[in-house]
Amino acid sequence: MTKTASSAIPVFKLYGENQQWPTPDLLHCETISRRSRDYQWEIQPHRHADLCQLLYVHQGQAQLEIEGQRTTLNEATLQVLPPLCVHGFRFAEDVEGYVLTLAAPLVSHLQAQLGATVDGLQVLGSYPAGKDSDYLNNLFARLQDEYADEQPARDMLMHALVSVLLVWISRQAIQRRHPRAPRGREYFRRFTQLVEQQYREHPKIEDLAHKLGISVSHLNGTCRELGGQPALQIMHDRQLLEAKRLLTYTSMTINEMSEVLGFSDPTNFSRLFRRRVGFSPKAFRERLKAETPED
């Protein structure tokens, strides 16, 4: 891959989509063919600011271009693509497999459960499936089926299946050594961790920059380069993701939701939601109801 400035590399949530996370779920699962077919089986180099992706190629050939290095997969392989990793793919038309995208809050939760044994979702890794090929394919297939359906305790089961995948990855990676992340990426990683811990408290960006030991302008520059937007907007995105989840999965009033999310005034919450999402929290909930089929 020709060396390209970081600012020229597009930042997507899901490939081909804008900065809006398309679902209140903390993960997205689809077959490789689902998205790549629309792009003639080629996904151009891009990156995700705060998402981890697991690419599982079960059958068929895949050409990977990751951080400028090209490799070809001819056997079942699970590829971990951590946040900020520049990656692109070219797939054979008979490829079979899945792409699982994990939002930062879920990654943080899973890593906390796993402990300090290994940072399996924050480090680039390629793991041949070997004898576990069918086992992994069944796990991904079950996860994709669950994602596409609306069964009771759906969220719990999906997270359980993802936990199984993380344990598999961690066991594969436990004896591998990884280079230290560049300083800018380390700052960004630590910033997103602070956002996850404190977004309900609405910390000042100045205070977060101070905790990182850098200036506000340095933090905003890093966030724009690696996350595609300034630090405050990243904070707002996390607050709005939680708001969408509350609107989807609870019967909280807007006032109750505003208080839970740490807003001093429900009007401020509604104004931010409308400005970033395009319509009010009430309208968001009404759209969900209209799109949900009745039993």
CATH superfamily heading of the largest domain: Regulatory protein AraC
**Which stretches are poorly predicted, pLDDT < 50 over at least 5 residues?**
1-7
What is the name of the CATH architecture of the largest domain?
Sandwich
Secondary-structure class: alpha+beta
**H/E series:** EHEEEEEEEHEHHHHHHHHH
- The end-to-end span amounts to 51 Å
Q: Order of strands across the biggest sheet?
A: 1-8-3-6-9
Radius of gyration: 19 Å
Q: How many domain regions?
A: 2
CATH topology of the largest domain: Jelly Rolls
What fraction strand?
15-25%
Number of strands: 9
CATH class of the largest domain: Mainly Beta
**Net shape:** globular
Report mean pLDDT, rounded to a whole number.
88
GO biological process, one term: positive regulation of metabolic process
Domain HTH araC/xylS-type: 189-287
Keywords: Activator, DNA-binding, Transcription, Transcription regulation
InterPro entries: AraC-bd (IPR003313), Cupin_HpaA-like_N (IPR047264), Homeodomain-like_sf (IPR009057), HTH-like (IPR037923), HTH_AraC (IPR018060), HTH_AraC-typ_CS (IPR018062), RmlC-like_jellyroll (IPR014710), Tscrpt_reg_AraC-type_HTH (IPR020449)
